Amino acid sequence: EVDAPVVQGDNWEQLKKGVGQHLGTPNLGENGNIVLAGHNDVFGEVFRDLDRLKPGDSIILFTSQRQYVYVITGTQMVAPIAVEVMSSTPDARVTLISCHPYLVDTHRIVVSAVLQSP
């Protein structure tokens, strides 16, 4: 139930404005790994509830022309240096990333989802 703008870039200043799309990742609906990051405990807590998502849940992302539905395939906790979760993929995928646990932020929660066929 997140309703936030997606901005280009995922540094501190961009994440104050909403969800940040990691530069160099593909557009919605394209093959590859779209990496989206958001805060969990400051600036609106946009990704506060990522840990409530489970496989089979849907993520709906909108552009001005259409919507894209991605289905969650899994969640993992990783160290902040585990940048391999942002690697490109051959399929159309979205990866949501935030700090975890709430107010502690020693790890990253990573939620992966694949594009549902149109």
Give the gist of this structure.
By secondary structure, this protein is mostly beta strands. The protein has one helix and seven strands; from the N terminus they run βαββββββ.
Explain what you see.
The protein has 118 residues and is mainly beta. The protein is 3% helix and 40% strand. The protein is built from one helix and seven strands; from the N terminus they run βαββββββ. It has one helix at 12-15; strands at residues 6-8, 19-21, 32-37, 58-62, 67-78, 92-100, 107-115. It has a seven-stranded mixed beta sheet with strand order 1-2-3-6-7-5-4, with no helix packed on it. The two termini are 22 Å apart. The model has no long low-confidence stretch (mean pLDDT 93).
Q: Note the gap between the termini.
A: 22 Å
Coarse morphology: globular
Strand order of the largest sheet: 1-2-3-6-7-5-4
**How large is the count of helical segments?**
1
Report the biggest beta sheet as strand number plus sense, adding barrel if it closes: 7 strands, mixed
- Computed structural class: mainly beta
Would you tell me the overall average pLDDT? 93
User: Unreliable segments (pLDDT under 50, ≥5 consecutive)?
Assistant: none
Number of strands: 7
- Series of H and E elements: EHEEEEEE
**Hey, roughly how much beta strand do the residues contain?**
35-45%
Helix content: under 10%
